[in-house]
Amino acid sequence: MSENNFLNIFLKKSSSIFLFFISISAFLILFTFNPNDPGWGVVSNKIPTNFYGEIGAWISGLVIREFGIIPGFLLSSIIFTWSLKLFNNSKINYIKFKISSLFLMVILGSLGDAYLEKMISNLTNYQYPLIFQNGLSDWLLTLSSENFSILLNISSQNSNLILGISSLIITSILFLWISSLGPEETRFFKFLMGPIFKPLIWLSTIFYNLFFVVQKTNEQEKSDNVFFKRLQDFKNQYLRINNNSIKRKAPKIRKNPILIKNDRIDNNDKQLNNNKSSLQNDLPLGSESGFILPPIKLLQNLREDIKPPSKETLDLNAKVLEGVLSDYSINGNIDSVRYGPVVTRYDLQPAPGLRSQRVISLADDIARSMSVEAVRVAMVPGQNVIGIELPNKVRETVVLRNILEHPEFLDSKLSLPVCLGKNIAGFPIVVDLAKMPHLLVAGTTGSGKSVGINAMILSLLYKHTPETCRLIMIDPKMLELSVYDGIPHLLTPVVTDPKKAIVALKWAVREMESRYMSMSKLGVRNIDSYNERLNEARRKGEILSKSTQVGFDPDTGQPIFEEQQISLTPLPFIVVIIDEVADLMLVAGKDIEAAVQRLAQMARAAGIHVVMATQRPSVDVITGTIKANFPTRISFQVTSKIDSRTILGEQGAEQLLGRGDMLYMAGGGKVTRVHGPFVEDTEVEKVTKFLSDQSVPEYDETITEEPENLNDYSMNGLINNNQNDELYDQAVALVAREKRASTSFIQRHFKIGYNRAATIIEKMEENNVVSKPGRAGKREVLIEDH
User: Fold this and answer.
1) Any bridge partners for residue 254, and if so which?
2) What is the CATH number of domain 311-391?
3) pLDDT single digits (tens) 522-532
4) Number of other CB atoms surrounding residue 701 within 10 Å
5) Which segment of 424-428, 592-596, 672-676, 751-755 scores lowest on mean pLDDT?
6) Which residues pair with 39 in a beta bridge?
7) Tell me, what's the pLDDT at 584?
């Protein structure tokens, strides 16, 4: 450790200890204040009873007589919290501005203190002898009360009440901001300051009700008051959530989901009755008000006290690494060292003429020579250096709560924020699923893939209500996603049957097409513009409609148009999560690939996004079609370089450390190393229980029920049998005339693809036009020429 670092740490620790003893002494001086002690404003020969004797009596007399009890205790508390933050190496932001704000807090606290003294004196008819009188607080109250009562033409008593409550509220807000309370300090002050603040809040509530609420004796006025309605709604919601005796209700399953409607525009939100081309119902979104997002306290807050290695240690490791590279004839200098929570990156500036591939190929040899588990070597974009990432001896555990509490997530304006983890510098990585727009995840067993999926799902649940985001979860393994069964965000129970999973994906395609038809009626290009247009219409009370041609007049031959109303229900995002796509590909690879391809190509603007995961990133699972339509990919640790190239297009994923260590490739092909957050199963269960207790999910069972007239899928896309009727009739006529029936014959004659020709032959067999193939593969024509 360098001399400057040691001096800085020593000064911080010493300052924190000094402030700690100052704050404790201040508390003791104020707690042991005696108005009869000789001191400020009192001349007496008595022996002072203050804990610090005569000095304590003078200080406590000056503070309490001039400013009041509240400012004294608040100043002592602020010094105490600052000492804790300095001791924990936490930064106090805006320190100069906060010190300046102390004067405003003292003035307002003195005013509130004087108000409390007046209120207690009026209620108890007891005057405290020479404690608050003739001090700064009493002078402030008299001056402000007189001017305020004259200005508003109200009584002095009401003026004291308004000024006192206002000053106490503002003083409390200033105290919380100036003290820079973090999570640990907040919990401590709930215990320490609770006996002081709770009576203030209780007294303020009583006097508010006494002066302002009791005057309204008419119950009808209360029922018409918006404030009372909001208060009653919140009370009912709070009691319903916190009542542990409430039993879980069975989910509501509806074949025809009910739309959520606003009472004020109920007439404008009617379903389209004449839209024959739409196959989908609007989504059931549950209650539109009163849904509470899960609190952050449900997740664990793990803060490990891991001391980073000193600069001398890092420089020594850099020299050793340079020596290892020189043994393999790699010339260059370690330009910089970047220490992170899990790995440390050493930036190698190569000698002129050195090919980067030579260094990258030596990753295993460097790991062996440095006696570490694995080493990743990769180019650093935009710099003339090669990054060599070595694992730390002591690795920090990244937890989801720390990322959710970070401004990167709290202040983000992202539509679908997803917490991936922290980069090698320890900065949180929060990305927008809506801009990806789909995500492909791969990783072997034990690499942290399932935990990473849980972190992504919880990120969405902490940001969205069921009104704004719905989920379809497909889990063929029946293990990973079953814990989410019952949350109100689900459109259907977690799908575990591969056959039903195929039907659910086809439903997503139909929902996408239905949404595009709705968007075309409004002339918008994406779901954000569509919902914005609907919200604008709801605010203005408009009735949106569109003229649609429904036929022709039999007498005149002129087209007939009808005005159709457009539903004003906003469309939520839909996120389809597939935990193991390899199992689905074994059952129906062509259908899965066709549906996923269609969604990946077109579903972004419709607000439908796909997250697809697999633990077997081979070419028969991640086909070229799927890979081309998923530009954003994540690879956890894999077993071989081939798997890494399959998912990312380059090696490196096989050299990851596991336990959430991943490579994130954005749409531009840039690869970033990220350390995923750890989420325990108990945390997921707490969040899902909180959500399930609030609302009963409303499932749409049509998602997993295939309609009778459902169109078939193929590798070339979705085939509409109704559109093939004309070609089918021509093929039947050809077969009947030529007395020949084979797929290749139909394919050559009509110049169509093999899959389409095979579909026509199979349909002929179903309709008894041709027989089943014989031993030689030939079919007999069963009809005569027509």
Assistant:
1) 700
2) 3.30.980.40
3) 888 899 999 99
4) 12
5) 751-755
6) 42
7) 85
**Contact call for residues 114 and 145 (beta carbons, < 8 A):** no
Are 113 and 132 contacting, i.e. CB atoms less than 8 angstroms apart? yes
Distances 662 to 98, 444, 475 between C-alpha atoms, Å: 41, 11, 22
Structure tokens at 488: 């109100």
Residue-level pLDDT at 127: 52
Kindly report, residue by residue over 681-718, the tens digit of the pLDDT: 999 999 999 999 888 888 888 888 876 544 444 333 44
Structure tokens at 673: 């190393």
Distances in Å between the Cα of 585 and the Cα atoms of 443, 508, 567, 591 are 17, 18, 37, 9
Backbone angles phi, psi at 387, to 5 degrees: -85, 125
Q: Which residues of 522-559 are buried (b: 16+ CB within 10 A; e: fewer)?
A: eebeebeebbebbeebbeeeeebebeeeeeeeeeeeee
What's the N-to-C CA distance of the chain in angstroms?
A: 96
Extract the tokens encoding 527: 């779901």
Residue 250 pLDDT more than 60? no
Give the pairing type, strands 469-474 and 573-578. parallel
Cα–Cα distance between 656 and 144 in angstroms, integer?
67
Under 8 Å between Cβ of 353 and 397: no
Cα torsion for 90, 95, 99, 104, to the nearest 10°?
-100
Q: Within its chain, how far is the Cα of 194 from the centroid?
A: 32
Given CA atoms 486, 488, 493, 496 in this order, what sign does their dihedral have?
Answer: negative
Q: Is the dihedral of CA 706, 712, 715, 718 positive or negative?
A: negative
CATH 1.10.10.10 domain span(s) along the chain? 719-786
Long-range CB contact pairs, 226-230, < 8 A, 24+: none
**Under 8 Å between Cβ of 612 and 438:** yes
**What is the spatial distance between Cα 82 and Cα 284, in angstroms, rounded to a whole number?**
50
Q: Please provide residue 215's backbone torsions phi and psi, each rounded to the nearest 5 degrees.
A: -65, -25
Q: What is the per-residue pLDDT across 568-585, written as a single tens digit (0 to 9) for each?
A: 788 999 999 998 888 888
State yes or no: cis peptide before 437, omega within 30 of 0.
yes
- In the three-class reduction of DSSP (H, G, I as helix; E, B as strand; rest coil), residue 111 is classed as helix
Which is nearest to 16 in space by CA: 82, 97, 70?
82
Written as one letter, the residue type at 722 is: N
Per the document, the length of the chain is 786
Task: Inform me whether the pLDDT recorded for 184 exceeds 60.
Answer: no
| Bridge partners (DSSP) listed for residue 386 | 348, 379
Give the contacts of 74 (CB within 8 A, at least 6 positions apart).
105, 109, 171, 175
Which residue is listed with tokens 């807000």?
173
- Give the residue from 722, 701, 694, 724 showing the smallest Cα distance to 710: 722
Angle at which helices 95-124 and 194-208 cross, to 10°: 60
The residues of the chain that CATH labels 3.30.980.40 are: 311-391
Residue 29 has pLDDT above 60, yes or no: yes
CATH, domain range 719-786: 1.10.10.10
Question: What is the CB neighbour count within 10 angstroms for residue 719?
Answer: 15
- Does the structural domain 400-543+569-701 have CATH classification 3.40.50.300? yes
Residue 634 is inside which H or E element, if any? strand 632-635
Can you tell me which residue has the tokens 């997250």?
611
Q: Which residues pair with 109 in a beta bridge?
A: none
List, in sequence order, every beta strand (DSSP E) within 459-594. Answer: 469-474, 545-552, 559-565, 573-578
Distance CA 120, CA 612 (A): 66
In angstroms, rounded to a whole number, what is the distance separating the alpha carbons of residues 270 and 259?
Answer: 9
Cβ atoms of 568 and 534 within 8 Å: the answer is yes
Output the six-digit token pair for 106.
Answer: 């003292």
The CA distance from 28 to 552, in Å, is 93
What residues does CATH 3.40.50.300 cover in the chain?
A: 400-543+569-701
Pairing of strands 252-254, 698-700: parallel
Cβ neighbours, 10 Å, residue 491: 25
